[in-house]
Automatic annotation (TrEMBL):
It comes from the Bacteria. Residues 275-422 form the 6-hydroxymethylpterin diphosphokinase MptE-like domain. InterPro entries: Maf_N, MptE-like. Residues 148-236 form the Glycosyltransferase Maf N-terminal domain. It holds the Pfam family Maf_flag10_N. This is DUF115 domain-containing protein.
Length: 640
C-alpha cells in the first residue's frame, strides 16, 4: 500500500533513547553515526503496524514496509544464502615437504568425491550483515544457525539505520542472544567502490583462521549490492593470499645476511625533502611510444629505472641514475647477466632489497641496499626502520616511487608505470627482457600473464589489468594519498592512478610551463652509502624457540571440537602478539596455511572420519613445526 508522505512522520523518542543507550554500550563505534543527520529520511506508518522509511524525495528506501520486508528477505536468504568459501586443499599449501607430502596419504584414503562435499550453510559460524537497519531479519537468520559464533553488522546507509531506531528494539535483540555465546560487532562503511574490500577485510579480521563457509546477508536488493556480491568472492580469495611461506622466509634471511653481514655491502641513506624531480620509469607497454618524450627531459630529473626498464632506457641513450630491484631468486642475476651482454650497466647504480640474490650486483657499477617493510628481514636487521623503505611493494614500479620518496623527492614524472594496458596481449615494453630472454619466454609460456580484470584508464574508458596490477595500483594510490606534499605526473595510457595527473607524451616538453617540475636541480649526493650497524641484528635463537613453543602448544590442542578456541589462539599468536619479532613472520605464512588446510579438511569430514584422521593431521602439523624449528636453528647457528 503506498505511503502518504504528506502525513506526519512517525517518531518514538522513548524507544530511540533506549536504542541509543543500548548501542552506546554494545557498539561504541556507532555513536558518531547515531548523532549524525538522517539525510532527510522520514518514518511513516504503513499497513497497520508496519513502518516505511522515505527519502527526501518521498520515495520508499525499501520496496516494502518493515517488518514485512525484513521477514521476506530473511526467509529468501535462508533458502539461498550467499556464502564466502575458502577451502584450502592440502596440495595448495606452500612448502609441500612440510604438509602435502605427509597429508597426501590421508587424502588418498578418503573417498574420491571428498573434497567436493558441500558444507551446509546451517553449520556456518560467521554471519556478515550489510545494511540491515533493524534487528528483526538478523534475529530470524541467527535463530536458524545453531553453530553461529560471530555476527558482523556493517552499516552503510546511516539514515536508514538511525530511522529504524524509532520502531525496532536492539535491547530485545541482545536479550534474545543472551543464552548463546555469539559475539556481535558493528562497523560503518561508506557505500562506495571500496565497500566490498572493507567487508572482506572486516570478515578476515573477525575470523582469519575459520575462514570457510561465511554467510553474507545483504538487506537491500538492488544493482549496487549485486555489484558488490559479484566481486566479493574474488576479493575474499585474494585477501587470503600473500601471507608468505617458510622456506622463502629463510631464503630472505640467507640473502640479507650474505649481502649485509658477510659482504658488508652498504645501505642507502635516506634524504630530507627537496625541490628536485624524480623520473620513475616502469617497463609497461606505454614506454614503447613515450620513450622519445622521456628523452627530451631525462637530463633534468633523477632517473630511476624500475627493474627491467633499465634496458630500453640505456638502449635509447638515456642516462640512468639508478636501477631499483625488488625481486629475489636465482633468475634475477641471470636476467641481468644476459642484459649486461646487450647494454652497458657499468655506469648504473643498483639499489636493491637486501633479499635479492647476492650475485646480482656484480653486473652494475655500484650497489646499495634497503630493507623491505613487513618482511622478517626488516624487523630482524632494521628494527628501528632507519633503512626500511616504505611503499615499495608489491611491484618494482611501487619500489621506484617509494625510492623517490626515500630520497626526498616530492615531484615525480612517471613513464611506463602503466598498471594496466589497452592491449591484453601486451604486458611489458617490447625492448625488455620479457620479450628478449628465452628463459622468461619459456616461463611465460608455462604461466602466462593473464589480464582478467579491468581498471579505469588514464584518459577514460577501461583498460585490461589483473589482480597484481590492481593491487599495485591500490597501494600506490594509498601512498600518494598519504603524501599530500607530492606532485605526480603520469605519462601513460594505462590505468588511472588516483593522486596523479595524466598527460599525453606530446605535452611533456611543456610540462615545466604547466607544472612546477624539472625547475630545480636535485642534490648531487643522492646516492650516499651508510654502513650497517651490527648492533641492530635482531635474530636470537632463544626468541625463536619461545615463539615455536607457543605455536606447538596451540597445534597440540587443535581439533574440530575446540576449533573456535584454537583458532583464536592462532590468531593471537600469528597476528597480534610480538609485532616486532622476525620469527613471527618466519613461521606465520606456512603455519597459517596449515591451519586453514586442517580446518578445511575436517569441515568436510563426517564425525567418524574426524575421529580417524584428526589425530593424524594434528601429528603432521606438530612434526612440521618441529622441522621448521630445526631449520631455523640450523640457519642461525650457521652465523657463528
Amino acid at each position: 500500500m503506498p505511503v502518504d508522505s504528506t502525513q506526519a512522520s512517525y517518531v518514538d523518542d522513548a524507544l530511540f533513547r533506549e536504542n541509543v543507550a543500548v548501542l552506546s554500550r554494545r557498539a561504541p563505534r556507532l555513536r558518531g553515526l547515531i548523532d549524525s543527520p538522517r539525510e532527510g529520511y522520514t518514518i511513516h506508518r504503513a499497513d497497520g503496524d508496519g513502518f516505511q522509511i522515505l527519502d527526501r524525495q518521498g520515495a520508499p528506501v525499501l520496496p516494502d514496509p518493515e517488518p514485512t520486508y525484513s521477514r521476506n528477505r530473511a526467509a529468501a536468504f535462508l533458502e539461498n544464502p550467499f556464502v564466502l568459501r575458502h577451502a584450502r586443499h592440502p596440495k595448495h599449501v606452500p612448502d609441500p615437504y612440510l604438509w602435502w607430502d605427509h597429508v597426501r596419504p590421508i587424502m588418498d584414503e578418503l573417498p574420491r568425491e571428498f573434497w567436493f562435499r558441500t558444507v551446509p550453510h546451517t553449520e556456518a559460524h560467521t554471519l556478515a550483515c550489510v545494511d540491515c537497519p533493524a534487528p528483526d531479519a538478523l534475529l530470524d537468520i541467527i535463530n536458524a544457525l545453531p553453530e553461529l559464533r560471530n555476527v558482523l553488522v556493517m552499516t552503510c546507509n546511516v539514515g536508514l539505520f538511525v530511522g529504524a531506531l524509532h520502531y525496532s528494539s536492539w535491547k530485545d535483540f541482545f536479550e534474545s542472544l543472551s543464552d548463546r555465546d555469539i559475539s556481535v560487532d558493528f562497523i560503518y562503511s561508506a557505500n562506495d567502490e571500496h565497500l566490498s574490500q572493507h567487508l572482506v577485510d572486516s570478515v578476515f579480521t573477525l575470523t582469519p583462521f575459520l575462514s570457510d563457509n561465511i554467510l553474507v546477508y545483504f538487506h537491500h536488493s538492488n544493482p549496487a549490492t549485486e555489484g558488490v556480491r559479484g566481486s566479493l568472492q574474488t576479493k575474499y580469495t585474494n585477501r587470503l593470499l600473500g601471507v608468505g611461506f617458510f622456506s622463502d622466509e629463510l631464503e630472505m634471511i640467507r640473502a640479507s645476511r650474505s649481502n649485509i653481514m658477510v659482504h658488508r655491502r652498504p645501505l642507502i641513506a635516506r634524504r630530507e625533502a627537496h625541490d628536485g624531480t624524480a623520473i620513475v620509469v616502469g617497463s609497461g607497454p606505454s614506454l614503447d611510444h613515450t620513450i622519445d618524450a622521456l628523452k627530451d627531459i631525462a637530463d633534468r630529473g633523477f632517473v630511476i629505472a624500475a627493474g627491467t626498464a633499465v634496458e630500453p632506457l640505456l638502449e635509447a641513450g638515456i642516462k640512468v641514475d639508478c636501477c631499483v630491484i625488488l625481486e629475489r631468486g636465482p633468475e634475477v642475476p641471470e636476467t641481468f647477466r644476459d642484459m649486461a651482454a646487450r647494454v652497458d650497466l657499468s655506469n648504473v647504480a643498483m639499489i636493491a632489497s637486501s633479499t635479492v640474490d647476492p650475485e646480482t650486483e656484480k653486473y652494475f657499477g655500484s650497489a646499495y641496499y634497503f630493507f623491505r617493510p613487513g618482511m622478517n628481514t626488516s624487523s630482524g636487521f632494521d628494527p628501528d626502520g632507519i633503512h626500511t623503505m616504505r611503499h615499495c611493494d608489491p611491484t618494482v614500479s611501487n619500489t621506484g616511487v617509494g625510492l623517490g620518496l626515500y630520497f626526498g623527492f616530492r615531484k615525480f614524472i612517471l613513464f611506463g608505470v602503466d598498471l594496466g594496458t589497452a592491449d591484453p596481449d601486451r604486458h611489458h615494453n617490447r625492448n625488455t627482457a620479457y620479450y628478449r630472454s628465452d628463459e622468461i619466454n619459456r616461463q611465460l609460456e608455462e604461466d602466462p600473464i593473464v589480464m582478467d580484470e579491468t581498471a579505469v584508464g588514464a584518459f577514460g574508458g577501461l583498460v585490461r589489468s589483473n589482480f597484481v596490477l590492481n593491487w599495485s595500483r591500490m597501494l600506490m594510490e594509498r601512498c600518494l594519498a598519504e603524501r599530500t606534499d607530492s606532485l605526480v605526473i603520469s605519462v601513460s595510457d594505462g590505468a588511472r592512478i588516483k593522486g596523479s595527473v595524466a598527460v599525453l607524451p606530446e605535452a611533456v616538453k611543456g610540462l615545466s610551463r604547466a607544472f612546477p617540475v624539472l625547475l630545480n636541480p636535485y642534490p648531487e649526493d643522492v646516492l650516499t652509502p651508510e654502513e650497517y650497524d651490527v648492533a641492530n641484528y635482531n635474530y636470537n635463537l632463544g626468541h625463536a624457540e619461545e615463539y615455536h613453543a607457543m605455536l606447538h602448544k596451540a597445534a597440540s590442542e587443535i581439533s574440530w571440537e575446540r576449533r573456535h578456541e584454537v583458532a583464536n589462539d592462532f590468531q593471537r599468536i600469528l597476528l597480534f602478539i610480538r609485532r616486532q619479532d622476525p620469527f613471527k613472520i618466519v613461521f606465520r605464512g606456512t603455519t597459517a596455511e596449515m591451519v586453514w588446510s586442517f580446518f578445511s579438511v575436517l569441515n568436510r569430514m563426517t564425525d567418524e572420519e574426524r575421529r580417524t584422521y584428526e589425530p593424524r593431521l594434528r601429528e603432521v602439523m606438530l612434526n612440521s613445526l618441529q622441522t621448521m624449528k630445526r631449520e631455523v636453528a640450523d640457519l642461525l647457528n650457521a652465523d657463528h
